[in-house]
Amino acid sequence: MGELMQGSLRSATAGAVTVLAVLFLVLPLAVVVLFSFHETASLSFPFTGFSLRWYESVFASAEFREATKNSLIVATAVSATTLVLGSLAAYGLSRSDSRVRDALALIFFLPITLPGLFLGLGLLVFFVGIDIKLSLATVAIAHFVYVLPYFLLIAKAALDRMDPAIEEAAADLGAGPWTVFFRVTVPQVWPVLAGATSLAFALSFDEFVITFFVIGPQSTLPLYIWSGLRRTIDPSINTISTLLMVVTLALFAIAFAFTLRTERRRDRAVPALQVPA
Amino acid sequence: MADIVHTGRATPVAWQEAATTVRPLLLTLPAALGLLVFFVAPLAAFLVYSVLTAGLFSVTGPLTLSAYGRALGTELNGVLAANSALIGLLAATATTAFALPIAYWLRYAAGRWQLPVLFLITASMFASYLVRIYAWRTILGANGVINRGLESLGLVDEPLGFLLYNRFSVTIALVHIFLPYVVLVLFAGFRPLSPALLESAQDLGADAWQRWRRVIMPLIAAPAATSFLFVLILSASDYVTPQLIGGTSGLLLGVQIQANFKAVGDWPQGAAISFLMLAAFVACYGVTLLGLRLLRLDRIRWVS
Amino acid sequence: MKAHRQNSTAGIGKNVDPEARQGHLGRRALLRGCGAVLVAAGWAPSLFAASPEVPDASGVINFMSWEGYDFPEQMKAWREAHGVEVQSTYMGSHDDIQAKILGGGGAGLDLITYGSSYKELYKGLKILTPIDEAKIPNLKNLLPFFASNVQNIWVDADGTRTGVPADWGAIGISYDSAVIAEAPTSYDILFDPKYKGKVGMPDDPLGAYGQAARVLGLDSSKMTEEHFKTVTDWLKDLAKQTKGISPSYGDVSTRFIAGDIMLSFMGWAAYKSFGAAAGKNTIETVWPEKGGGLSFSNAWAIPPGADNIDTVYAWINETLRPDVNAATATFLVGGVVVDGAAQLLDAVTAALYPYDKLEEFFALAPLQQDPPLESDRYVTRQRVLAAWQEVKSAG
Fold this sequence. Notes:
The complex is a heterotrimer. Chain B is mostly helical. In chain B, 70% of the residues lie in helices and 4% in strands. In chain B, helix 6 packs across helix 9 (167-190), helix 11 runs antiparallel to helix 14 and helix 13 packs antiparallel against helix 14. By secondary structure, chain C is of the alpha/beta class. In chain C, strands 1, 2, 3, 4, 5, 6, 7 and 8 form an 8-stranded mixed beta sheet that branches. In chain C, 51% of the residues are buried. The model of chain C is unreliable at 1-50 (pLDDT under 50).
């Protein structure tokens, strides 16, 4: 009985912390959304009234549309590449022997330790040195380097903690390594990989420090916002941010609803193969 | 065969054996090659820069360690480094300390709230970084949410000035930026351990403390330690947040790196500071790994 | 065209006219001949004289500058008429330009701007290429001040032009008239203890040193060690009155609007307009007798990697039309550089600066001059920039 109560106390405390944290995370977002509808150009209280003027001006702006398009292209390319190469790398790292693994992991995590500015300038000098023209492609390459450690951290955390017994069993039963990977490993960790990929997308989409140096004569969305800082800040940046959040949440909602149905259908079919929920 | 069905429920307590028949390291090759070309090579070039002589937005001539001398010798760099260490540690501690219970709750106690809460947490990652920092101004400022709330409740006469443009606001903003990431990492770390397994540990006689020490801690120690280090280094090298809401006391080393590269044009010093930070990170990472290994917290062993 | 020239230089004499051929210089022939001369007279100047001609515009201009300086609306008609596309990279701070170009990212970049105080540096870094005045006929439209060679900002001592003025603005003391009833008459007000924590300051090191030196009766382009220390200490004391130095001018304006500050060193006249857009009409800017202020001016320039130079000339030429200049000045909330443009401004923009007493104004708030790149006698630009980092963390 005591044990049970302690258990729920723990859960309750954790729950309370979660609620506080969610409020903490969401409060600035609420402010962002609220001010995107502000009638004047002010980003501070008092809040004088609602208006759609910033939404109108943002949608009317060709630079905004162009910048958004570019950001989408880059972020999609980056997250796709990171998903493939990063998953392989994470799998390789987590299934290998300790000494080499730690050294290799360190190299993979190194880009995080260097400020974006440094990375951007270094890559600029490099691209120019080997005569590659600056464009969205160079931005994508730079973003891949930047994003990979984040992806690896998450993917590796999940892969490390997978029970290898099932993989071993499958291998013993004659499954080749790729079959093991795709039909045993991936089904167990795909939600984590999906989360890490969406993280990669978000990071790439929001990046402007490195981007400025390695981009050609184009702009991406965060660069567009960043450059607006020179004059005064107005709620159009809030508008852009709100649109981003809404679109992402919508996409997430769809994706998760879809996969939830797939999972439930599969679980109903073969209970024994139920992944640890 | 029957084993496969039952031994989905191994208790992770000890060391992990290297497993599969695939040459695992080969899988890292494509990513490693990418990094080699596009990261290690520029990095090496910059390492060379850091030991060259500084020109105006350029490098020339003889090899010299003077950039490192300037980096270590400038008093301002020392002050900012100390500030970065302080704020970095605060941010990293707060972030990890909050993220742990959240990840725990999400994994074991959330039930049908798991996905909605995950959404909310992930959503903040998609609100642009810059916009979020400005939002903190709206919240912490003299006319902001908190001050107006306190004033309207009659708790204060004058707005609180110490909420914004100092170390406090920088730390808060940094925690806000990094919390979702760390939650995701720790959630990923918890994921393979299902509630059922936790229960079976309980059934096997482990009390709460033992469950924590022998089941949860080993599971989460490595990712928690790594995320802690990441938040620490990322905070220290940030230059946007400190300049927007850091006031004069909340400036970090990243600002100095930026100044050297963009305004002053002393590339070797900018590179030198970056490499010194890199060295510090590698040292901390090494110490952490060593510590984890000594405490036998770095690997999970699945025993069936 | 050559055919035309031949006909007209040939004069009336060679005009084929049946009557004339009959040796009879009839009146019709005379009239026709006079007509021809008049026509030729109208054409001739453009055909003969080595007069400036605007090159044809076409293709893409790769542009890097502050957001807005590519004038999406104001130059739209011209762009569409000539089929020109402008691809822009916007910078967040002036230093982005040299960082990117020197990092190697300048290939194909056709058009940039430089602030008046960056001239020396950019010249030293070889980022500015000579501009052919013959290809920009509208240079004649420039206001006398901007046509004269002030401090060699736009034209070098040897006569080579490196920049064409695009806009200008002036920096003084900005204050919130809703809170501070009387306009400040000296820079001492910034140190008043009752405004501690309520003073703003942008991250503009050269401007700050320039203005601080002026207040102290010194010249930041000619500072001895002693002067340098005096000015630096003054700035550090000022920084203690702030809650942090804003990373940009725009950020100072945001703090005014939010009520976080009531005064600003290096206050920009444009704040009034920014504030008004946000519902705060009370931000004013003054240039006290003692200390005055500083002006800045952005100029078009052509970097070394440019490949669509003719179109750039055509662009610059177009911006020097009075109506276009008035439109761009309104958009940028700044000053006009072209004669006749001031009359075309709306009331708010026209009120920003005293166009009727412009020369006097520029005596009170001269264009900023910067410390030298290299010098034995005076403190150099790099040292000022390095010291500024300490100012940022003072207090």
